[in-house]
Amino acid sequence: MGNTHCSYASVGSSSSTSCVSYPMDSIKLSTGVIVGIVIGCVAAGVLMNILITNSLFMFRRIVSLYQNLYITSSISSSSLSSREIYSRMKQLMDSKEYKKTLDFFDQQSHSCTDFEINLALKACISLNEYQCGMNIQKTLSQNSLNNPYIQATLIQFYSLISNNMPTKVLDLFDEMNIEPNQAILAVLFSACSRVGNDRAMKIGRKLLNQMPKNFLNDNKLLTSAINMLMRFGDEKADSVKDAQKIFKLIDKPDAITYTAMINSFGLNRMDSEAVDLYRKMPNYLQDEVSSVCVLNACSHSDLLNEAHSIFHEVSHKTKKIITAMIDCLSRLFLFDEA
Questions:
Q1: Can you tell me whether residue 317 is helix, strand or coil?
Q2: What confidence tens digit (pLDDT) does each residue in 126-179 have?
Q3: How crowded is residue 321: how many other Cβ atoms within 10 Å of its Cβ?
Q4: Listed residue (87, 97, 163, 101) closest to 132, CA to CA
Q5: Could you read off the pLDDT of 268-297 as tens digits, one per residue?
Q6: Which residue from 144, 178, 215, 260 lies 20 to 30 Å from 288 (Cα-Cα)?
């Protein structure tokens, strides 16, 4: 079956009629096409909506990134004065916020002077940030390396951060243009005792002879000097005498000073002197370390009676004290008693 479409035409006074038949399938096909087009349009609209949504998201993301970049750029480009940078870093250091000090220094390093660099190195010392300190040192100009305050801080850095650089500490000292303070002197004495060669002994003795008299009230400094002198292998007699003179200058020796002198006597085979000093040491200052040092001195010189007496007088016998006594007995081949 099909539908018939008739058309009428009039020419002049005559008229004619023509009819054309269309099969139903062609109409159905046209409807399918139309439906397909509609569906396609709908799908295209959904797709367009997705694309628009994604585009808006991406646009917002780009704008956000740009704003962040602009803000960061504005902060970094807003050049703070050296005074402002120093003030902020000093504030952070005083608050013991050493990590924040270094973070701020990194942000402003392009505008930092020697004052701020010095603070950054001190923050590295406080944090034991060895690598960070080394990185800062590598970027220093020759003028900064010649700055006496930075040199002094670098000496502390090399000594406190790494015990493997005593020679570097002495090298820096040779380049210093200022008189070392008490903290620097203690570091230098320690470096000299660890190096222990002729150069170190010469530097150590020179520092000791030139030490200001007002420094003689610093127990820690004098203890460091005693340790240095007693570790100098050569000129042993003179070193021991000098160490004893320094010890006598101390008004009120503390436990650390007593122990340093007792240990120094022991290292130099002056074991009777070590025992005598231990006996003079106030009981409330005697501790595990001093007891171990004097027992070790006894074991070196076969002072068995003194070792027995000291060991029995110790009220709180720790594992280390017992071990020191066993070592003393073993050296005398008293294995059964040990």
A1: coil
A2: 888 878 888 888 888 888 888 888 888 888 887 765 566 788 888 878 877 667
A3: 19
A4: 101
A5: 888 889 999 999 999 899 899 999 999 998
A6: 215
For strands 2-11 and 14-23, give the pairing: antiparallel
Six token digits for residue 242? 């000098």
User: In sequence order, what are the residues at sequence separation of 6 or more whose Cβ sits closer than 8 angstroms to the Cβ of residue 265?
Assistant: 230, 271, 273, 274, 277, 297
Alpha carbons within 13 A on the beta-carbon side of 190: 22
Paired tokens of 280: 């003079």
- Eight-state DSSP code of residue 335: T
15 bridge partner residues: 10
**Cα separation of 325 and 338, whole Å?**
8
Q: Which two tokens stand for residue 278?
A: 């231990």
Q: d(Cα 4, Cα 238) in Å, to the nearest integer?
A: 137
Q: Is 104 exposed, middle or buried (0-12, 13-18, 19+ CB in 10 A)?
A: buried
Question: Which residues, at least 6 apart from 190, have a Cβ–Cβ distance to it below 8 Å?
Answer: 159, 166, 224, 227, 228
Quote the CA–CA distance of 107 and 123 in Å, as a whole number.
15
For CA atoms 229, 232, 234, 237, give the dihedral sign. Answer: positive
| Domain edges within the chain | 2-75, 81-178
Tell me how far CA of residue 176 lies from CA of 12, 131, 169, 170, 196, in angstroms. Answer: 126, 23, 11, 10, 21
What is the pTM for the complete model shown?
0.56
